[in-house]
Amino acid sequence: VSQKEHFLAVTLTGGHEIIQIHVISVGTLDKTLIHPRDVFSVAIKENAACIIVCHNHPSGNCTPSEEDIKTTRILLKASKIIGINLLDHIIIDCNSYFSFMQHSIVFNEK
């Protein structure tokens, strides 16, 4: 079990087949710094059609923080500009997960 947050990007084809899983950032116990350019640069290099981002919460609580929601909004805006769809942001812990898409957080905003 990792005691640090890891932020990952999964690059996908147009048919949603996995191209690669990338570790974008490794942070501290309760945060990791990411920038849209770091997330989307790997997707652009691999000619990915879409991505899913994921990070862990070592605390054991996969409820998104305000910072998680803010980051997801920024990544979603960047994805629309770049033309690589952001399909979901998933937060995981040892026993559970939280999907922004399933909970209609950020992804249903205009």
Q: Quick one: overall form?
A: globular
> Total number of helical segments?
2
Rg over C-alpha atoms, rounded to the nearest angstrom: 13 Å
Q: Could you spell the SSE succession in H and E letters?
A: EEHEHEE
Low-pLDDT ranges: none
Task: Tell me how many strands there are.
Answer: 5
What distance lies between the first and last C-alpha atoms, to the nearest angstrom?
A: 37 Å
Structure commentary:
This protein has about 110 residues and is of the alpha+beta class. Helix content is about 25%, strand content about 30%. It has 2 helices and 5 strands; from the N terminus they run E-E-H-E-H-E-E. It has helices at about 35-45, 65-80; strands at about 5-10, 20-25, 50-55, 85-90, 95-100. It has a 5-stranded mixed beta sheet, covered by helices on one side. The longest helix is centred in the C-terminal third of the chain and has 17 residues, at about 65-80. The radius of gyration is 13 Å and the shape is globular. The relative contact order is 0.20. The mean pLDDT is about 90.
Keywords:
110 residues, alpha+beta, five-stranded mixed sheet, 2 helices, 25% helix, 31% strand, globular
Quick recap:
The chain has 110 residues and is of the alpha+beta class. The chain contains two helices and five strands; from the N terminus they run ββαβαββ. A five-stranded mixed sheet has the order 2-1-3-4-5, covered by helices on one side.
